[in-house]
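Weekend entry, working from home. Most of the wet-lab plans are on hold until the incubator is repaired, so I used the time to fold the two sequences that have been sitting in the queue since the last round of cloning. Logging both here for the record. First:
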Amino acid sequence: MKKIIIALACMTLAITSMQAQEFTLEYNIGYGLYGMSDLKGALKDAAGSGLKGVKTTDNFPGNFTHNFRVGIQQEQHQIGLTYSHQNTSGQNHLADPTGEYKLKIKNTGNQLGVFYRFHCLEGKISPYFELASGIVFNNCKMEEYIRVDAEVQQEKSTLVGVNFFLQPAIGVRYKISTFAAIIASVGYEWDPTGKLHLKGNKDMKSSYYADWSGLRVSAGIVTYFKMK
């Protein structure tokens, strides 16, 4: 994984030495599906070993993603930096007139990496191939709430950790002017496992990891600025 990131960084340096460059700014909004098998398992185990009647009401569904990119384009080659934000959550819940039980897990992932995109054509419409790679900073908040009559117990903790990610994709670009284009893509994100640990204490490792692996679709706009 580190070799892939180093290779993409070297390509960035190579492209920046070329002529007729364009500086690009890009924003994409998309939708992602997430694996989260460990955290789903945590909810299932908690529901089965706790109070009778507890149900999983939210099980880490897909959600919207936001992606920002800055890059350099030289003819059919484009390379640069990418930042993405994504989040999902799960919840067990039980409530009746005598009390309430709730276990909520919310995980947020902030990605930072590099990308390379090859445009098959230089015309108005161009399909492209893309590869992005980098790291995901996870922030997983866990909250357990119990209320029996007027008595309340509440526990909160935060797990953090870092994953590597690799995301190949295919897409298409449509230039609406010399300085702007709209794009759409579909890809798959793969996250090798990385254990979460208690925030502030790396020695307190959990048995969970945040798996963001899954389908990604997105659409956005790119603006171009001539550099030379």
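Second, folded right after the first finished:
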Amino acid sequence: MDIAVFDGMDDLDVVGPFSVLSLAGRAGLGVAVRLTAVAGPAKATTQGGLTLHGGPWAPRNADVLIVPGGGYATGGTVGVRAEIVDGRLPAALAAAARPGLVFASVCTGALLLAAAGLVTGRPCTTHHRAVDDLAAAGGEPVEARVVDDGDLVTAGGITSGLDLALWLLERFRGPEAAGFAQRVLEYERREPLWRSGRHESRTAADEREASAW
């Protein structure tokens, strides 16, 4: 599983999912998570000043690619809006699309997926202050904490990244794995979770994807 990093991303958008998934990995639950950057290996600085190291961009080696948000409301030279204007990250996301890869986003990371053309006509969500922009970009916003539309899983604002990661853990590794992570983190996953049912009728290929995750 990859988490994309870029300058101006929100700290918790990245650290929240990474904490959940790396915990699962250390617990032997068959989860591997890494940070990745389009121009990687490269350093990226969060809004709060954390320096993170993104490895090479290799989405073909990932089953899930999580895109954080950050800096959307303020604009400026870094953050989601700057990445949309720059165009490299949206182009790389669009090029990464393939069967078997699940795109996920936290907060305004959904707007980066929208810029890549990945949410058009799809149920999705984002930070409540960016919902209108998500709809204008072609998405179909749903009022939910996490929205699972099969190969597109989006989450609301900031702290919902924890809920996103816990849901992905449950979806691919089962409720026991998610429950374990919640107990260790002393965090109760928040609802609502909205599911389209696209992942309910799992094919043999889906099962192989889960076993490799």
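Plan for Monday: verify the second prediction. The CA atoms of residues 120 and 140 lie 8 Å apart.
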